[in-house]
Write a structure and sequence with these properties.
By secondary structure, the chain is mainly α. It has one domain (about 10-165). The chain is built from five helices and no strands. The protein has helices spanning about 10-65, 75-100, 110-135, 150-155, 160-165. The longest helix has about 60 residues, at about 10-65.
């Protein structure tokens, strides 16, 4: 059996799937709590904060999944870091655009928006921890252990030293 390469793909797929489900639940909870705290402004602020956090967290996972498609290629490392850095730059630009667009919106409650973003990020980190604890990924890959021949073992048995065998310290 040939060793399979160790990859982060199963972890990232599971994380993205769990995050999508939890984001839907957070959206419902955030909308209800936001509405109770600050009426319709709170509802839309909570939904905007949760959606923004989910998009930013998904960009990172998706960029790594896309980059993993070139695993084994000679250009894997430069492609990987180029794609991941491109994702980070995309997030930075989107973040600035969103801040400039949302900063003067009358429907945005800044406190509810902030709490929604923080809650989404904390839940996402908890999902990452749970997925990492439950996944079974080997620590090393592409390792071939030497085969042991039973005949070689019999020849390599150490001989007992006559002086040390009878003496005790």
């Amino acid at each position: 059996m040939s060793p399979s390469p160790v990859t982060s793909t199963p972890i990232l797929r599971t994380t993205l799937l769990w995050s999508a489900g939890v984001t839907a639940a957070l959206a419902v909870i955030g909308a209800v709590v936001g509405y109770l705290v600050a009426d319709t402004e709170g509802l839309w602020s909570a939904l905007a904060g949760i959606l923004l956090a989910a998009v930013f967290l998904a960009i990172t996972g998706a960029s790594i999944l896309i980059a993993n498609r070139w695993y084994g290629n000679d250009l894997y490392v430069p492609l990987f870091f180029g794609i991941v850095m491109g994702g980070w730059l995309l997030k930075f630009v989107v973040f600035l655009v969103v801040l400039f667009v949302l900063r003067d919106q009358p429907w945005l409650n800044p406190v509810v928006f902030f709490v929604a973003i923080v809650a989404s990020v904390v839940v996402s980190l908890l999902i990452d921890v749970l997925v990492m604890l439950r996944m079974r990924i080997p620590h090393v890959s592409d390792i071939t252990l030497p085969e042991i021949n039973p005949e070689d073992e019999a020849e390599e048995e150490p001989e007992a030293d006559a002086d040390s065998a009878g003496s005790k310290v």
